[in-house]
Amino acid sequence: MFWASWRLQRTETLIAAGILALIAALLVPTGLNMASAYHHDGLSACLGQNPSDACDQAVHGFAARFDGLKNLLAWLTLVPGVIGVLFAAPFILELENGTTRLAWTQSITRRRWITNKLAIIVAAALVAAVVMTLLMAWWHAPLVRLDGRMENSIYDAEGVVPIGYTLFALGLALAVGVVWRRTVPAVIVGFVGYFAVRIFFDTWLRQRIVSPVTATWLDQPSPGARGAGPNLDHAWVISQGPSDKLGHALSLTASPCVRSLGSHSQAVSGDCLAQHGGGYMHAVYEPASRFWTLQGVETGIFAGAALAMILFAAWWTHQRAA
Question: Do residues 251 and 127 share a domain?
Fold first, then answer.
């Protein structure tokens, strides 16, 4: 039974392997180039709390050199969705073509057929997701040392969330497919639904699933001063701006402390803000230390939804498929 299921799954497995091979062909040479530049520029010596001006210039030069490539590879966070719906397709296709009837008239029960099929599908999707995550984590290593892992383009490709994303896309395509019994539409709807949920998480829900930290501190605009504020290095800063002592945001556009410098540029007087009850900064952020907490909660949500949809697909197939 496992061998027959594997043979029916091999086309999708080869396609997934081809996708991963293409990604590796892109990541390996560029990753080696980036790692070489990181060590050549001596950026490991610039990771202290008070980097020198030379370090700042080297870091900015490094970021400018690889920023375009990093933004391009951020689209690879959609690959877990592609892999998920890809591995769901053979199961739906068998229901669409009615080949399940032949299997169920043999010595194989419906329950055994469904269990074996879904086990192979989930296992293959998990392996592909882990390989993808390891490749992306290796490629991002120099950027993580400099900027941390809380930025969306890095966060979405690190840790364990890609596994949750893959399972969610798989479960969604299966749930739609077993009811609709049309492979291509189900795969398209599954990926579009995955994409929509990802946008919802990245732009709204992620900053709310774990309550962010808030901090208000007296701003110190003197050159070289770090101020008394929290350490926001490698943190995910959700919002930050001038405020009063209680952390209420100030509207600088209507403030008498803002003067025009021409060409739409402005300057803000710190002394004036202090006289008008301002002179403070307020930030809402997720510290870098919460990376695994956020990853665990988000993965739990996606994996839990995926499990529910996979179980629904199994139940529907067992009870409703003719």
Answer: no
**131 and 150 together in one domain:** yes
How much is the pTM? 0.88
Residues 183 and 140 in one domain: yes
Domain span including residue 248 = 213-286
CA distance 169 to 128: 13
Mean pLDDT of the chain: 87
Worst-scoring range by mean pLDDT, 202-211, 234-243, 252-261, 288-297?
252-261
Task: Please check whether residues 203 and 312 belong to one and the same domain.
Answer: yes
Q: Are residues 96 and 131 in the same domain?
A: yes
**One domain, residues 86 and 175:** yes
The predicted-structure confidence for 238-273, as pLDDT tens digits, reads as follows 999 888 888 888 775 555 565 554 445 555 555 565
Non-local CB neighbours of 159 within 8 Å, separated by 6+ positions: 133, 149, 291, 292, 295, 299
Give the side-chain half-sphere CA count within 13 A for 200. 9
Euclidean distance between CA atoms 174 and 114, whole angstroms:
12
Pair of tokens at residue 70: 């990093």
The two three-digit tokens of residue 314, written as one number: 């199994």
| HSE toward the beta carbon, residue 2, CA cutoff 13 A | 4
Q: Which of 156, 101, 103, 165 is nearest to 129 (CA)?
A: 165
258 lies in the same domain as 176: no
pLDDT digits (tens, 9 = 90+) for 128-182: 999 999 999 999 999 999 999 999 999 999 999 999 999 999 999 999 999 999 9
Using pLDDT thresholds of 50, 70 and 90, give the confidence band for residue 274: low
Give the tokens for residue 223: 């050159």
Name beta bridge partners: 285.
213, 237
- Nearest-angstrom CA–CA distance, 19 and 183: 20
Q: Reduced to 3 states, what is the DSSP secondary structure of residue 322?
A: coil
User: 93 pairs with which residues across the strands?
Assistant: none
In the numeric block, the tokens 């952390």 are attached to: 247
Q: Domain total for the chain?
A: 2
